[in-house]
């Protein structure tokens, strides 16, 4: 499946194509890093993707537009139905089984924020401009910049559902028709740096059930709020003693949503809390055991009072994810957010890179600079070339 790369650098440097030209916005204060026609195509593609709202579970329109765009660029495109009106987009050239896969996600968090481009500051914003339509656009333009054999050994995959549960990548990973790859480059906002790994994640939910009563006679009821508060107190103590590592730091626990009761003068019958745990070390099984041990007495006490406390887990979660970052010339970081990397099963080299910073993602000021987009095109090309050469060398050494 590997290509004959020699002389690889000569082939690649002579293989940069210029996609079809689109009207370029007015000149900005910064010199483009790409040829004018390539920069124009990049901005057009990025703008169109951002202008199409694609909040998770409503990705149909952007997926179908992207499929049409890629077909116009002579890709073979397959739509994998993940759920009704939700499709992953798989695109490739002359062959379906390729060595390299570039992948990112086309869904965004709510709410939708419209696209804008400030030509004075060269800042481009809008929902998804960073997370992760910046990566989508840059990966496509980077691939279009290769010709002949190299482009034919690259596939593109753009998935739905990453922002909620990874449904798109999970479905692709389990797809009976899925090709196997040797190199997968994932796109997320990484500040233009190569990520060496990210924390794991688990989502426990605590649900307390009591007995409603008049607040003037609280002894006639059982307060679900009291049960939940005591449970959360135990977890506040526990989070100071969770596994940590030199690479990822401390495991963190965020009490993201807490609700209970119906009124101040009513003993609460139900209460619930949703948590996000970012794992710096340890396995999901170990974390479950620690949480259960911390809450054992609370569960027992609630039962004696006539109430209950249940702990459920949104999914199995995962521990810290180590990612390949063995390519020279890139700054290296670790990140605390989750990605689709652990959802694609298989034996392959995996890299994580993208334009923009996570610190503005999911916000009303999500934005990045045009030069960050252009640099990402160049960097994705560098990643493809370097990772492919390394894979080729490793196969020779074997």
From TrEMBL:
<feature type="domain" description="Peptidase M20 dimerisation">
    <location>
        <begin position="197"/>
        <end position="298"/>
    </location>
</feature>
<dbReference type="InterPro" id="IPR050072">
    <property type="entry name" value="Peptidase_M20A"/>
</dbReference>
<dbReference type="Pfam" id="PF01546">
    <property type="entry name" value="Peptidase_M20"/>
</dbReference>
<protein>
    <submittedName>
        <fullName>Zn-dependent exopeptidase</fullName>
    </submittedName>
</protein>
<comment type="similarity">
    <text>Belongs to the peptidase M20A family.</text>
</comment>
<keyword id="KW-0732">Signal</keyword>
<dbReference type="GO" id="GO:0046872">
    <property type="term" value="F:metal ion binding"/>
</dbReference>
<dbReference type="GO" id="GO:0016787">
    <property type="term" value="F:hydrolase activity"/>
</dbReference>
<dbReference type="InterPro" id="IPR001261">
    <property type="entry name" value="ArgE/DapE_CS"/>
</dbReference>
<dbReference type="InterPro" id="IPR002933">
    <property type="entry name" value="Peptidase_M20"/>
</dbReference>
<feature type="signal peptide">
    <location>
        <begin position="1"/>
        <end position="17"/>
    </location>
</feature>
<keyword id="KW-0479">Metal-binding</keyword>
<keyword id="KW-0862">Zinc</keyword>
<dbReference type="Pfam" id="PF07687">
    <property type="entry name" value="M20_dimer"/>
</dbReference>
<keyword id="KW-0378">Hydrolase</keyword>
<dbReference type="InterPro" id="IPR011650">
    <property type="entry name" value="Peptidase_M20_dimer"/>
</dbReference>
<dbReference type="InterPro" id="IPR036264">
    <property type="entry name" value="Bact_exopeptidase_dim_dom"/>
</dbReference>
